[in-house]
Amino acid sequence: MTPAWIVCAWPPVLLKAQSTSDLHFVHLGTSVLNPGDTYHPSMGQTLWGNPSSKSVAGVAWDWVELQQGVFAMADPLGLVTNLRLVGPRGEALSNTQVALYLNELVRTLPWQSEVKRHCRLTKCCSPINTRRFPARGETARVNAPPRHAANGRPTLRRRC
């Protein structure tokens, strides 16, 4: 798979924030950074974009398996994209405003089923009877995502 953070190297795509619902993203790839074990969940990255348009836009994020077959974004504010969203009058949006629009976009994508399918194909997720997820009230022990040695930031927290 193309590394998810490569989306930062793609040419920027300027788009009115209200137009994000018009984007038709497809799954470009999913990678597993940690296949998980009895005490640690599977974790990875997924990349979505619209490669067939004139200007290629994309968004990527880290995911984590919360319980057998249930996936969530590891950090809803940690998305990386080459989209540059602007308001109705062309003004730049704050990072928080951009995150809201991107999270709404991600919500419309069938990304959990793609991650689940990828995990099944690569057998990264252990069978439920050999995998132990924390019981209600029990604290999960989660490995931190891989970090860059130079800056100590999580993999997808790379600034574009």
In short:
With 160 residues, the chain is α+β, with helices and mostly antiparallel strands.
What does this 3D model show about the protein?
A hairpin with a 2-residue loop joins strand 4 (58-67) and strand 5. This protein has helices at 95-108, 111-122; strands at 13-16, 26-34, 43-49, 58-67, 70-73, 80-81, 83-86. The chain has 160 residues and is α+β, with helices and mostly antiparallel strands. It has one domain (4-124): Nuclear Transport Factor 2, Chain: A. It is 16% helix and 25% strand. The strands form 2 sheets. Strands 2, 3, 4, 5 and 6 form a 5-stranded antiparallel beta sheet that branches. Residues 126-133 and 142-159 have low confidence and may be disordered. The longest helix has 14 residues, at 95-108.
Write out key terms for the chains shown.
160 residues; elongated; Nuclear Transport Factor 2, Chain: A
CATH architecture level-2 label: Roll
Tally of discrete structural domains: 1
Q: Any idea of the CATH class?
A: Alpha Beta
Number of strands: 7
CATH fold label: Nuclear Transport Factor 2, Chain: A
Unreliable stretches covering 5 or more consecutive residues = 126-133, 142-159
Shape assignment? elongated
Distance, first to last CA: 20 Å
Number of helices: 2
